[in-house]
Amino acid sequence: MLEELKHEVWEANLALHRSGLVLLTWGNVSGLDADAGVFAIKPSGVSYAELRPEQMVLVDLDGRVVEGTLRPSSDTPTHRVLYRELKGLRGVAHTHSTYATAWAQACRGLPCYGTTHADTFRGTVPVTAPLDDRALAGDYEWETGRAIVRAFAETSPAEVPGVLVANHGPFTWGGSAAQAVENSIVLEQVALLALLTEGLAPGLGPIRAPLLDKHFLRKHGASAYYGQQPTMQ
């Protein structure tokens, strides 16, 4: 089972790199086996061109490396907080993609201006509060995770599967490592669209709630009807 998880996370990291959202060794993807209480994550600083499934590092939710000879991603504590605190996550991705990172550096939440955004994110993608000096002097990556959790005090992480970390960049998540990567791709595209929209229509308000909900709920939830349904035998 854990070998399958390592392979899944390896494939997700390669997919993130192929998407063009990461440069050099930036970015990382993890995937959680909830039953085992263990997640696999990319090793720190290893080139995507050299990355192999057996190099994925297994870490438990208490932060102990349970398998692997390489050091896990420096963002591992952030992933660990998200798995512990935001229930239902099975994959987490982090990038420094251009447009989503620009919104993060501007310390602005990403408004929902249209249905492309609403298909995946049910409203504004929040931005965290900047970390204070105490957090910076402590366990920085852990405190980053805590800042993300605080940003979701009144927002459902299942309905808004991503966040902008102030002055830093985006994290996304989903029901698998592959879905977390897909949400990173969508987040980057809607960040670009929002930037262009504000240039064309300064002062524009967000999408109307009924239209937002229509697009989100046709893809998500018990009444979703987008895509193909399994054929009854």
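the 2nd protein, sequnce then structure:
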Amino acid sequence: MGGLYTRPIYRLAGDRGLLVEYGDAIDPEVNRYVRAMSIALSSAPPPGLKEVIPTYCSLLIYYDPLLTDPTKLQQGLENLSEHLSNIILPVPDTVEIPVCYGGALGPDMGFVSEYSGLALKEIVRIHSEPSYQIHMIGFTPGFPFLGGLSKLLYVPRLRSPRMLVSAGSVGIANDQTGIYPIDSPGGWQLIGRTPFKLFDPSRPRPFLFKTGDLLKFKPITLEQYSSLLSSPMGDNE
């Protein structure tokens, strides 16, 4: 469907969570609204608010049930919504991520080519052309869920997820693309890998980017990948 709901949908999430849905699709307008509401809540948190987690098109709100309840939170959200036009979203940073596409680092590139009917060079060109907005971060620490994937690259998830996907792997699935920041299970089609560490808890800034930033993929050769991987640049600090 896409687009903002006329009215948000409120759903209970356990005994101390409230899920607020503002749409049902990956949509820039909906995500801007979600981010604006998240900023508004952080700037003027209502009593009992513990944490706000923004997603593509919803907010998950954790609260202290001894201090508030879903009815009070809903009223507070509706009051804030009347003033969202005053919220100015931060100017996004653009983060360039080098990626070596195909080969052993992109084991599913052959399937993507067969499924889409596109040559490997076209897949690389189409995937690396846009600047992708980071709509949300989650699943594992630093995993960016990106909006803006070309419909030409829509492919299904793996029928059976891999038990281990290497950190830095770039994947696509349905209408999404993203990067695995740590070794983890995963079911997306892998088309390349970056030598950059997306998440490192030992750094002053553990994550390379934040929600709302723009991410730009830069194709590199295997030689460049190996050089960056073995140099301080691999830490991207």
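Residues 28-43 form the longest helix (16 residues). The CA atoms of residues 160 and 187 lie 7 Å apart.
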